[in-house]
Amino acid sequence: MSPIDRLSLPFTNGAIDVADMGATLVLRARPCPAYGLFQRENLYCRQAFYPTCQQLAQAGFDMDRPLPEQFTHAIVHITRARNETRALIAKAYCALAPNGVLIVDGDKTDGIESHLKAVKKLLPVTATLSKAHGKVFWLSKTETPAALTDWLGALEPRRIADGFYTRAGVFSADKIDKGSAQLVPFLAGKLKGNGADLGAGWGYLSKQVLASNPAIDTLELVEADRHALDCARLNVDDPRTGFYWADALNHTTKAPLDFVVMNPPFHETRKADPALGQRFIAAAAKLLKPTGSLYMVANRQLAYEAALAENFRNVERLDQSSQFKCIWARKPKH
Ligand SMILES: C[S@@+](CC[C@H](N)C(=O)[O-])C[C@H]1O[C@@H](n2cnc3c(N)ncnc32)[C@H](O)[C@@H]1O
């Protein structure tokens, strides 16, 4: 059974009666067989990761319909970020009408056990089911403990030691990414015209390249995580920028670009997946002018060389450390 099917269990075994479900909030919604058990018009789905949001929209879910005041049920799919998940649990609980039902689903590797433990300390949990290396648990709304509402704070951007805004759950939420920092010195004075930062995160790389390249006319920050992009808006205050909540793999620009910078994502799940970065390389090549340049940093062990050679005529390694490699690829083949 996939972890996603696990959510069906309390409904199919009659522990939670689908007939009682009115307006239902679904946080971090994702394609999930259990949704087929519910009345579609009762579901209010939210998802900040653009490709997943698009997948649900294409399957017919209205992803930004206005929310009612209260819900009879709320479902939280946990994320890998502990503080973000706690905040989502608190948010969903607070959105419930009295006696409303909160359902939390997730894998062990994403920390469902510790969330269950933390919730149990504050509220009586009705029941728990374990399946497929994870758990689904649920409870009915009673009082709202202050300790629970304290968890909500993680949903707000906060400043990290380096002065940047980040938020729980975004990439490198606690510090500047070492890979991006390694690429920065190679970009000073090298970029001009119009460019993009693919997978711009909370904007570290973009801010640095804008500061060290006065000849840049425009820079598009393309990022799939809406929360990271919201932080980037706070971090990168420059009239040359445009912010795009989008899938970098399908992003288009008005005209071909002079340059792309990127520190591409290398996993969607916990496992490293070089295919994702390879698709970013192909997407960067497509966006560039025939004379354009891609500057990228990647974990040293990721196999990007074949994709670079397939998409660019000139590929040069600018730097390599024990962890990262910085690459300059020129003249896309298209
Ligand atoms: C390794 S991080 C780099 C972040 C940022 N450039 C930095 O310097 O810290 C990769 C980023 O790509 C984003 N991402 C993942 N898949 C994406 C996609 N399909 N389209 C756009 N961005 C994506 C992730 O959310 C993450 O913020």
Q: Could you describe the 3D structure shown?
A:
By secondary structure, the chain is of the alpha/beta class. It has two domains: 3-155, Vaccinia Virus protein VP39 (Rossmann fold), CATH 3.40.50; 158-332, Rossmann fold (3-Layer(aba) Sandwich), CATH 3.40.50. Helix content is 28%, strand content 29%. It is built from eleven helices and 15 strands. It has helices at residues 3-6, 9-12, 50-58, 82-94, 112-122, 146-150, 178-183, 204-212, 226-235, 274-287, 305-311; strands at 24-27, 43-46, 71-77, 96-107, 127-131, 134-140, 158-159, 165-166, 193-198, 216-223, 241-245, 257-262, 288-299, 312-320, 324-332. The mean pLDDT is 96. Bound molecules: S-adenosylmethionine (SAM). S-adenosylmethionine binds next to α8 and β10.
Q: What would a concise description of this structure say?
A:
The chain is α/β, with parallel strands linked by helices and 334 residues long. It folds into two domains: 3-155, Rossmann fold (3-Layer(aba) Sandwich); 158-332, Vaccinia Virus protein VP39 (Rossmann fold), CATH 3.40.50. It is 28% helix and 29% strand.
The helix-strand sequence is: HHEEHEHEHEEHEEHEHEHEEHEHEE
CATH topology label of the largest domain:
Rossmann fold
What's the number of structural domains? 2
Uncertain spans: none
